[in-house]
Write a structure and sequence with these properties.
- By secondary structure, the protein is mainly α.
- The chain has a single domain, classed as Winged helix-like DNA-binding domain superfamily/Winged helix DNA-binding domain (Arc Repressor Mutant, subunit A, Orthogonal Bundle).
- Helices cover about 60% and strands about 5% of the residues.
- The chain is built from six helices and two strands.
- The chain has a two-stranded antiparallel sheet.
- The longest helix is centred in the last third of the chain and has 21 residues.
- It is globular, with a radius of gyration of 16 Å.
- The N and C termini lie far apart (about 50 Å).
Length: about 110
């Protein structure tokens, strides 16, 4: 349950409070779907960059509801720059790790 101060913060930052949480210690403090460990950026990446429909996302992540998927997208459109920065940071991390361990990942 969200306390009054958190609810005020959610309204101020326009978070769909019943669906998206931003909590320290959960998903690295990144926005995620309430009561799950599915990050908003995961939903956004599938929809915006991979072209998945909401139904495709639910099929891949059956713990989510249609409302949760749409709430994640609302959060993204209301917080575009922050979510895009998170996606870039995740991509850069993957590229660094791939470069670092390229010899370990090479297929013979």
């Amino acid at each position: 349950m969200i306390d009054a101060m958190a609810m005020g913060a959610a309204r101020k930052s326009r978070i769909p409070a019943d669906y998206v949480d931003v909590l320290p210690g959960v998903c690295g403090g990144r926005p995620h779907i309430h009561s799950t460990r599915v990050k908003v950026s995961t939903v956004v990446a599938r929809h915006v960059y991979q072209g998945d429909s909401a139904d495709d996302i639910i099929e891949a992540l059956p713990q989510l509801t249609l409302a949760q998927v749409h709430a994640a997208l609302v959060y993204y459109y209301d917080n575009h720059d922050a979510v895009e920065a998170e996606l870039r940071a995740e991509d850069e991390f993957v590229q660094r790790m791939a470069a670092r361990y390229a010899t370990h990942l090479a297929v013979p």
